[in-house]
Every structure is written in C-alpha cells, then in structure tokens.
Amino acid sequence: MSFLDRVRTCAQFTPSAYRPFRVDGIDVGLVAHEFAELLAKNAGVFVVGEEAVTLSPSAPADPAGRTDAVARALRPLADAGALPGWRDEPYEVAAYPGAPVLFAMERAAIPKFGIIAAGIHVNGIVRDADGGVRMWIGRRALNKANSPGKLDQLVGGGKPAGASVHDTLLKESAEEADLPEAVAGRAVPVGAIAYRTERSEGLRRDVLYVFDLELPEDAVPRNTDGEISEFHLWPLQRVIETVRETDEFKFNCALVVIDFLIRHGYIGPDEPDYLELVHGLRSLALPGGAPI
Amino acid sequence: MSFLDRVRTCAQFTPSAYRPFRVDGIDVGLVAHEFAELLAKNAGVFVVGEEAVTLSPSAPADPAGRTDAVARALRPLADAGALPGWRDEPYEVAAYPGAPVLFAMERAAIPKFGIIAAGIHVNGIVRDADGGVRMWIGRRALNKANSPGKLDQLVGGGKPAGASVHDTLLKESAEEADLPEAVAGRAVPVGAIAYRTERSEGLRRDVLYVFDLELPEDAVPRNTDGEISEFHLWPLQRVIETVRETDEFKFNCALVVIDFLIRHGYIGPDEPDYLELVHGLRSLALPGGAPI
Questions:
Q1: Do B263 and A4 touch (CB under 8 A)?
Q2: ipTM score here?
Q3: pLDDT in tens, B117-128
Q4: Hey, which of A44, B125, B245, B275 has its CA 20 to 30 A from B223?
Q5: Can you give the pTM of this predicted structure?
C-alpha cells in the first residue's frame, strides 16, 4: 500500500461509459449510459440523446426557471429511489467552479449527472512545544449516506449554490466542529485539490478548497450536526501511517492529508512517486471554458 | 496585468510547430520544425524524419554510449552558434523526471529538443515579530544567458544528471547565496510546479521542485558564482505588486512566487482566477509513461 494507491483510488474513470450532459452547447457533466436509460423513461425536461443528454428546447432559458423544471423532472427519480440521499440542497451547475452558473441542481443528483462540485476541507493542526505536530481527525457517523465510519478532516463540506468558499468554511466549521467564526476565520487557504472518480453515488468530479487551521491545545472540537461521531487528536505519524497503510480514511480525505504532507515537507521530492502525487492531486482537467 | 497573465506567459505552446523526439519508441521531447531542418544538415547520430526525430539504429544502445554519440553530433551545431550557452553540464533525458534515464544531453540543447528539465527554487523568508513577512529577492547578473537583470528567488538552479533534488538544493544554495548546508538543509520541500512554454532558447518543459526556507534576520545571502548581482529583502507586499503589475521577475520565478502566495493564503479561493492559477502552475501533463 502506498500514497499513490490512495490517489489512484480517486482516479477511477472509464470515458466510454459516459455521454456528455450539455446545456447551451456547454458540456457541464457526464452521464453514465445506465443512468441515461433510466432518465429516458422519465425524461421530463431532459432530452436523452445517443450523443448527449441535453435540456429540452422548450425548457425555460433563465436559471431560476431551469432550476425548477429540472427539480420537477428529478422528483419521480428520487421517489423511485434512484437518487438516494436527497437533502434539498441545491448545487451550482457550471462548466467548472467560477464559470457562469447555468442553474442549480439537487446535490444528490450532481454525481449522477457528473457535474463538478466544490467543497472545503480543513486540516486542524496542533503544534507542540517540541516541534511535533498533531492533527484533528473526525470519524464519520455510521448513518452518513457516503463513507459511514470512515476517517475525515476536522471540517469538510460541500459548497451550496450561492455561497462563497469563505461562507462555506464558516458554516461547516460551526456545524461540524462548533468552531466560532473568530477561530474558523483564522484558517489559511492553501490551495485546491481535484479528482474525477467513479463511486457508488455516481461520478464524483470534485474541487476541494483546502485550509490549514492551527488550533491551541485547549480548543477541542465538538460536532453539532450529527455527521461526526468522534474526534481524535493524533500524532501526525499515526495519520501518515493510517493513510499510507489502510483505507480507513474517506477516499477524498486521504488526498487532503497527502496534500498536507507534500506542502509541509513530510513527503519529499526525491521519493519516487513525488510528481505523480503532486500531479494526481490536481488531476481534474478544467473543461473547455477554462482559459488554460 | 494580473497573476494569470504571468501564468499565461508560461503557457505559450503551438503543438503544430513541433515533431516528437523519440528514443526507444518513447516520446522524450518536442523538436521545432525549424530546428529539425537545421539538425538534418548535420544529423550525425540523429535521424530527422517527417514524423519524428529519432536516434539512428546504428547508434549505441547503452546510456553512456548514447551520451557520447549525441554530444559528438551536437558539437558542430554548437560551433555554428545554434546552441548558445553551452556549459558542459549534462542533463537527464527521460520521458519525465523519475522515469528511466535513457542518456544525458548538454543543458544548452535540452530546450532545442523540448526535453523535460528539473530544477529547484527556494523562497527565502524572514518572519518579523509583528507577523509580517519579508522575502529575499535576487537580481540576475546582466551577463546571464537567460533573463539577465530579471528578479529571481533566493536560490534557483537546474538539476544536473545524476544529482538528487536534495543534492541540487545544497549545491545551488552554496553557490548562489553562500548558505551553508546546515542552513540550506532546513529548507522545507513544499511541492512542485510545472510549465511548458516557448522561449528564445527553445521549448521549456520544466518541473521546479519548490522549497520554503525561513531565515533569521541576520542571515544575509551573498552570491558566490556571479549569477546574482544583488539581493534585496522586500516586504511581501512589494513582491506581490511587482509580480502582479510588472514583468520584472524572470518568467518562471513569477510562478514560484504565485505558488507561495497560494500556499500561504495571500491569494484566496474566492478570487476569480483561483482555480486557473492552481491548475496553471502544474500545467505540464506528464507524458505517456506516467501512471496517472
């Protein structure tokens, strides 16, 4: 087992299994053929073509109208159990984060349509007087829809439609770890990781904005929304070994740890997999609209 | 002017202007058609085909033999002035850093053959008691072959064949800034940036291993190899404005600064160009041999 195995776990993708989800001529998602067939039976506002899934020409053209029409079309699929984890939380539909928002779609449907989602993850760190580092690790509640019982960062969560990254940081820090704004606001943005990988919930194409937050010894996180069952303050060496040798961490949380280890010199450039790790943590090619 | 302009400056590439340089069936480089025509006149061990530049089947198959044969073939080009800056410094020829080394080639020829080169850059930082940060900036000597008079990091340099990244860090820190091993060895490896861009010297496809080095106030760098004419300890805000508003920094050194600003939270995730910057700093797709 190696760090590279964790990155490969987040790079499971078979291009031929998907057709584009295209809105206004822009490829905003990737729909598995299997889901496209299911969608065709209850298409509503969707047009399920051989080449691509699109929106009907008769659908509303404005974002709010599209959001409503899409929600109505998805409801029967949700009622039939094809969109587990529906939580009435709209996500932005765009070619990539920062591109023009075309409409909003329920979070549970995002991976079924292979739309890029954004989120935030916070590494919670305690620096010891002797130079050692400990890291706060959460264990996900057993009733979570995704990755129950797996290990997680101090704080992590998706960015809902309309919220900024900073808004999401403050909201999730309060809900997941009971951190007041004065504490969460000290989190330092340190970059973003990205991956595209097939999971049971669909195709995850995620951009995670990463933060490092140094906490004093006596700041003990407390989960308030039931999503984390317990927090542990682990010596970094234990975190390193757990990520490298086991699959106890949630698939994407392992990548956030590896990114931390690279940024802080715990994985060095003469190690054989270094460039594959650096590259693999940002393997999501920004689609068409991105200028680079 | 913006940070993104600096990244775009390092992404000038017209695929149709090049043909592959292929060794043992592996694409290790990209040769501009214009240079290929020049090479064809004095081909030596090279076979200049329409589709690709390759090595003659009669060339030695072992790395040392190939290194010698290629050096002999390049010498007439150097004598004719087509390889300016020849310095008898061999670089590794491989599909990407870490891939099997096929042979070594004089540094001055590396961009003419579009081979990926590796280097190290060190951000030299002084933390003030009030939380402010200053950064050591070097000005390149006016007699440098590349980017004379431009601003640079505290330390930067290419990785010669056979040297590890750590070796290169220590050697360049001694030569460029007179830093003893005990000081340079405290530099923290923090990742790697990559770019592919056309320059007057050829096609630069570089991977730069980046280090952050915190220095005490009284550690004043001193150049020993004549490559840096002066060092300045600038408040970070001046560095930020100079990178964003001017082209005073050497093209790739600007990227190293932008990477520093992202990793330390001076450029935040709600800024419009954030993902393009994060992505653009690592825009070198690892070719075929890379597992990801």
A1: no
A2: 0.93
A3: 999 999 999 999
A4: B245
A5: 0.95
